[in-house]
Amino acid sequence: MNRRIPARHHLASVGVAFIALSLAACGGGQPGTSGASGTQGTSSSDLPLVKEGVLTSCANFSTPPNIFAEADGTPVGAEVDIAKSIAKEMGLKIAFPEYSFSGLIPALQAKQCDAIISALYIKPEREKIADFVPYLRSGSGVAVSKENRANVTGYDHSLCGVRAVAITGATGAGLLEKMSAECAAAGLKPTEITLLDRSADALQQIIAGQADAFMDTSELMSYYEKQSGGKFVVVGETVGQINIGAATLKENVKLHEALKTAFDKVVESGRYAEVLSEWGLKAQDITKAQ
């Protein structure tokens, strides 16, 4: 789907944040333009931008600690900080209009934004549409409620016949579909998959016992586990190690090269390492990927 959706209410403190994520409902306004261009930024006068002087990045605020929103709609997270640092090096401000996750690429194709810097995995089918500047490593994980009544042990045949949730258009959804097919081929019950637009809704279904397992990025699973006070538990190992990148349309070569140059400067300055440390994502350091 390709609809704009309003920002959610994510709170910073551990206890309150989990409640907000569990019970979040659409509300608030669209996150606005932020940041100011630095004097050291690269000239951007020749870049084809949606709005002059602004790097507009389509975003989905449902993947903490990578990218989410505070109670007032302010975008926060490791990817937000990385994007702001990139924009500063380019001498640009930055804006994060929000879309459903499945609407990110259609919005880019419709030229409603310049780039996607929002937990977007670099996959072959996406590389046919866009060029990417890799900036994080990631993977997928499975999590359950503390009761784990379905006895799910991870990304394996314990998912056969259980009720699983994932985000529409996300890699976790595809992995669940693959596992469901494996279950059926083995003569077992297929996985009952429900696709949602928001991770907060998926989390709520797990806690309420309406679903047995949730599959999404390993960073998101770990974040929710820490915030839940033991109500939400990661099971099994991370699967499908993959890169996250800043996507631009293939025709927009100048912007792709400008993003790459700016990201390299963010790394060289030490800001990249600072951001990963601040958000507990040192293991996702793209510069140390094997």
Report what the structure shows.
With 290 residues, the protein is α/β, with parallel strands linked by helices. It has two domains: 14-138 and 244-288, D-Maltodextrin-Binding Protein, domain 2; 139-241, D-Maltodextrin-Binding Protein, domain 2 (3-Layer(aba) Sandwich). It contains nine helices and ten strands. Strands 8-7-9-6-10 form a five-stranded mixed β-sheet, sandwiched between helices. The radius of gyration is 19 Å and the shape is globular. The chain starts with 13 loop residues before the first helix and ends in a 12-residue tail after the last helix. Residues 1-30 and 36-42 have low confidence and may be disordered.
